[in-house]
């Protein structure tokens, strides 16, 4: 009986440790996704405020912490766009200026020409 109770306590302890570890990993992944999203959002907002002729290369990582994710942009209204980063069931959307082009993982060229933000 004592051995069974010991295994039950040990199993419960291991389960709690695994659960806490999984939560910390999810939080870390969320923070990395959010940091990437905010960084890109700030880059697009800055470019929209600058004069024509602005050009910069932006690198979007292929994975975040070794984990696959997806990234997309689109239009919401005439002057507004969105950036969406998705990992598993988690999706975060950021408001950005309207872009002409599609963001991709790897190197992206951002430029402002004739008042428009052009990507790739």
Fold and architecture overview:
There is one protein chain. This protein is of the alpha+beta class. It has one domain (2-119). Helix content is 40%, strand content 35%. It has 1 helix and 7 strands. It has one helix spanning 2-49, and strands spanning 55-60, 70-75, 80-87, 90-97, 99-100, 106-113, 116-119. It has a 4-stranded mixed sheet, with helices on one face. Strands 2-3-4 form a 3-stranded antiparallel sheet, with helices on one face. β3 (80-87) and β4 (90-97) form a beta hairpin. The protein is rod-shaped and about 80 Å long.
Key attributes of the depicted protein:
single chain, 120 residues, alpha+beta, 4-stranded mixed beta sheet, 3-stranded antiparallel beta sheet, 7 strands, 40% helix, rod-shaped
**N-C termini distance:** 68 Å
Which spans of ≥5 residues are poorly predicted at pLDDT below 50?
Answer: none
Q: What's the rounded overall pLDDT mean? A: 88
Rg, please? Answer: 21 Å
Percent range for helical residues?
40-55%
Return the string of H and E elements: HEEEEEEE
Could you say how many structural domains there are in total? 1
Query: Would you report the number of β strands?
Result: 7
**Shape label:** rod-shaped
Q: Count of helical segments?
A: 1
Report strand order across the widest sheet.
Answer: 1-6-7-5
Quaternary structure annotation: single chain
Largest sheet: 4 strands, mixed
Helix vs. strand class: alpha+beta
Task: Tell me the fraction of residues in β-strands, as a range.
Answer: 35-45%
